[in-house]
Amino acid sequence: MIRRLCLVAATVLALSSTAAHAHNFHMGIADISYNERTGSTEIVHSYTAHDLATLLTNLYGRQFDLGRADSEAPLRRYVEKQFYLEDANHQRLPLQWVGYKVDADTVLIFQEIPHVKLEKGSRIHNGLLIDFLPSQKNTVNVQTNGPVQTLLFDQNSIDQIAP
């Protein structure tokens, strides 16, 4: 019994020390969908809070607590620079900031294009965190017509055409 307790304790210590180290895989997910009820295209991003806070600290030279109100403007500036949508004529679509929600691990960012349905052939630019973390991979799920289509963004591919 003591041997089993020692083994369990050693396993817990090993796992907790692994969790304390920075993660090695950097990823984000965005969902772009058309809301039939409102007639708007809605975008929800999910990124690791630590990665965004570290990025903003690096950009602005001060510590960031994404739970504080004074962090929203710098976060918004960064997101609007690194994520945007263009129509087939290469004109930026009027993407509006709705807000964000943060917890200990994740930042959810909400944007929308009021009264616009994203058309096939629109261009998606997603460089979020890719400029800061070379291994960053961003998945974008697009559902405006038919089934969900998934696109993968990385250093070699930050601009893609919506399916």
The total of helices stands at 3
Helical amount among residues, as a percent range?
Answer: 25-40%
The main sheet comes to: 6 strands, mixed
- Class based on secondary structure composition and strand pairing: alpha+beta
- Taken as a percent bin, the fraction of beta residues is 25-35%
Distance between the termini: 58 Å
> What is the approximate shape?
globular
Number of strands: 9
> What is the H/E order?
HEEHHEEEEEEE
| Rounded average pLDDT | 87
Side by side, the strands of the main sheet go: 4-5-2-1-7-8
Give unreliable regions as ranges: 1-21
Q: Rg, please?
A: 19 Å
Structure description:
The chain has 163 residues and is of the alpha+beta class. The chain has helices at 2-20, 49-60, 72-82; strands at residues 27-35, 40-48, 83-86, 96-102, 106-113, 123-126, 137-143, 149-153, 159-161. The N and C termini lie far apart (58 Å). The strands form 2 sheets. It has a 6-stranded mixed beta sheet with strand order 4-5-2-1-7-8. Strands 3-6-9 form a 3-stranded antiparallel beta sheet. The chain has 3 helices and 9 strands; from the N terminus they run αββααβββββββ.
